[in-house]
Amino acid sequence: MLLALAAGGIGALLGGGMESYDGLERPPLSPPGWLFPVVWTILYLMMGAAAWRVSESGGPAGERRAALRIYALQLAVNALWPGLFFGLGLYWAAAVWLAVLIALIAITISRFRRLDDLAGILLGPYLIWCVFALYLNLGTAILN
User: Fold this and answer.
1) How does pLDDT run across 34-82, given as a tens digit for each residue?
2) Domain interval for residue 102
């Protein structure tokens, strides 16, 4: 869980805060800025629990390592997105980066479910939130 929360902390540092979000033209259904840290904290805890379940599963060690490597890769990609979007204001590049993240999350879910069904299910809300984030990212890119 600490690894997932650390990725979130790095992302928050790279993003530089939500102040810039409040000044942007945003698409419909955009949540208030205060909601993002709440949702992300819950999602990072769920990601950490999923990774722990995979690491402790009885699956083959090579399969567990491969699944956790993909998990670590998607965490790194996740941590860099706020820097692109909030830190640098590169909304279109951030959208592409987020699409890559979504693909990596889908692969992670597939790998995790082979080893522990609940671990894959725990990542479902994360995937849904990132798809919603892509909508918000694209809407923001178009409007700004």
Assistant:
1) 899 899 999 999 999 999 999 999 999 999 999 999 999 999 999 999 9
2) 2-143
Residue 108: CA atoms inside 13 Å, Cβ hemisphere, count? 28
Residue 72 belongs to domain with CATH number? 1.20.1260.100
Q: Domains in the chain: how many in total?
A: 1
User: How open is the CA angle 101-106-110, to the nearest 5 degrees?
Assistant: 145
CA distance 25 to 129: 20
Give the integer Cα–Cα distance in Å for 85 and 96. Answer: 11
Closest CA to 5 of 69, 51, 48: 48
Q: What is the mean pLDDT of residues 8-25?
A: 73
AA letter at 78: N
